[in-house]
Amino acid sequence: MRKPVIAGNWKMNKLVGEASELVAGLWEEISGQDAVEAVVCPPFVDLPSVGRLISERGMTLGLGAQNMHWEESGAFTGEVSPGMLTDLGVTHVIIGHSERRQLFGETDQGVNRKVTSAFEHGLQPIMCCGETLKQRESGQTEDVVSGQVKCGLFELPAEWVSGLVIAYEPIWAIGTGVAASTADAQEVCGYIRGLVAAEYDTGVAESVRIQYGGSVTPENISELMAMDDIDGALVGGASLKADVFSRIVMFS
Ligand code: 13P
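# 1,3-dihydroxyacetonephosphate complex -> structure
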C-alpha cells in the first residue's frame, strides 16, 4: 500500500510570524493524524522557525523546501545547498516545479541533478512535471510528460525511484481554480506509472507515489484520491490557510 502524501507548497508567501501562525493552526487540526504523510513547504527564510515549531511540538509533519542547488557548497550566489536544508531538519524538497522551469529557466537535466543530489543527501524529492494548455490542446501531453519524467529519472537506481514522489501538475490547472477532471488527472498519473514500469519494472512502478497538483481543494480532494494512480496532492493556494489545508489532509 502506498501511503498518501499531501504537500502544501506555500510558494512566495508568509512572513516568519505568519508561517508560525499557520503551522500552529495545523498543529491544532492535524497533529495526531498518521493516515497521510503531510508536508509543508515554506519559503527558505521560514524553514528554521517552522522546523523548530514542528520539532518542539512533536508534530508528524514533513518539512519541505521548494528548491535547492545540487552542489554541496561553493560559488553559487543566491543558492541553497542540500546540506543546508538537512541541517535545518528539512525532510522533503520540491524539484522542477513548473514555475521554476518557466520563470527561472530550469531544465530537465538540472532537475535530474537535483533529484540525484536530494537522494544522496537523504532528502525526499517531489519531482514535478506537467504540460501547458497549448501542449494539451495540441495533443502533446504524453510526449511532454514522458520527456520530463524520463530525463528526470536518468541513471537513477531503482531503489531511489521506488521511493520517489512525482507530482503531475498540468500548468493550466495551477492557480486557476480549474482543476483537471479526475479522469484526466488519473489518465496522466496512470501514464506516468506506466513510464516508470517501462523504464524499471512493475515493482518500482507500484511503489513510486504520484501526486496530482493544480487547484486542489477540500471539495475535490476525495474524488481525486479515489483514483487508482493518484497517491496524493501538491497543493498551492489551499495550503495557505490552516483550516483549509487540514481539510485536505483529513480528506478520508
Ligand atoms: P494551486 O493549488 O494554487 O493551483 O497550485 C498548485 C501548485 O503549483 C502546487 O505546487
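# post-check
The radius of gyration is 17 Å.
The chain is about 45% helix and 15% strand.
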